[in-house]
Amino acid sequence: MTRPHPPTGPGADHPSPADSQAGDPGTAPGGALSAAPGGVAGGEAYRSLADDVRGEPAASRARRGEAETYFGRPGRALTGHPFAFGFTAALGVLSAWLLVQALAASASVLILIVVSLFLAIGLNPAVRRLEERGLSRQWAITAVFTGVIVFFVGFGVAVVPPLATQTGDFVTQLPTYIGELRNHPQVRALDQQYQLLDRLQQYLLSGDLGRQIFGGLLGAAGVVVSAVFSALTVLILTLYLLASLRSITSLGYRLVPASRRERVRLLGDEVIKRIGGYVAGNLLISLIAGVTTFVFLSIARVPYALALSLIVAITDLIPLVGATIGAAIGTLVGLFVSLPTGIACLIFFIVYQQIENYLIAPRVMMSSVDVPAAVTIIAALIGGALLGVVGALLAIPIAAAIQLVLHEVTLPRQDRH
Asked: Transmembrane helix: is it a keyword of this entry (predicted)?
């Protein structure tokens, strides 16, 4: 049996009018379709031309099919070819590497966004309470945000002037301190043996100290500018996120399929409620710690009581070690005043920490976050190792959200199987 040869010759691609009239019963002598729309010939010609979406004539398609049969069957697609697989895998690895580089480059910005989002969620309960008392959401957000700005301004006013004053006093009294060291017997004996004071005086009079101080001041100025810029960015982002929190959550729920949207909405609202309760409760506990510390330090006549109380309030936000850091700073300043004042500060902080841990914190956190102590410690350690203080602050509410999803979704699904 012989293979049919493809048609060749000058008329292969363009059939003659006679062939068209004889071979295509749906065409009229003038080359047009049959005028009878319901006729068999006209319907066949209409279907043969309509089936080709590219506008290719039926005869050409038939001849192309014969040519494909003659020259062999087409090979399999290149989708499973090793070269295609390797090229696709290389593109995937390159895309993943570029994505990781982009995330690493924008890590600081992403951290600011996450912190602002958590602050917005934490301030949302206060906004809702003001709304329940008759204020519109716009005025409620304005009132809450004004309180936040007043706190930051008060912290700057309370901390910056004492630091500047103490730094200036130290620089002014530095020669006096060196003279007192010369009169000390032990320091005098060491100076006679190793010439410590002479070397210190030469170092102070040389230009190395000035260059180091100038470089240190530039580095400190850079850190201060970066901190101020980050604080302003967080404040602005928090304001915008707090104002658009409802629209953000609504848009997030609309991305979920309609069959699961209601359950996701209930779980999401509960997660936001718990995170907001934790952040708001932690802020309230820190405020109580700062006010109590200020009252005690004012009674004990410890200098810079307002600045120290603000430092205690801010460090109290840090899980596990924050309260200890604030207590150590307050006790150290008390020791500079006198030994009895330092001991009184130490006793005060120890007693207050017990009251906060067993009376204040359980009552404030009763309706917000119920995370076991072991999970709290592990979450704070992992968050601190990943993102430092910010990670330790955010780890506990994230652990509470994960715990809620496990109890409401994962464990019931495992129990059904």
From this structure: yes
